Amino acid sequence: MVSADSYRAMTTPASLADGTKTRYASRPPDFQPPRAAGHSHGGGISGFPSEVDYYPDSGLSVVVPLNTAGPVGPGELARDIADVVSAK
Q1: Which of 25, 64, 26 has its CA nearest to residue 44?
Q2: What average pLDDT does this structure show over 67-84?
Q3: Which of 1, 5, 15, 40 is the most exposed place for a label (fewest CB within 10 A)?
Q4: Cα separation, 25 vs 61, whole angstroms
């Protein structure tokens, strides 16, 4: 779907001003949510999972920070929220 150069640019970790490599590449992965194409990035540390989903067609952003791990993760919650908001 993308050229080899584009894929390499998307997956190559960024460098800080001092040359230190980060753990993140230039952009989040695409996903296919129920209502529109978007971008998503999840994260977390020690019981604090989170998700940020962006739907460029509608301009909708959904941010879900949790302070506990449970049966439903932040990614699923974010997409459920987007589904409800998009249905209105």
Answers
A1: 64
A2: 85
A3: 1
A4: 20
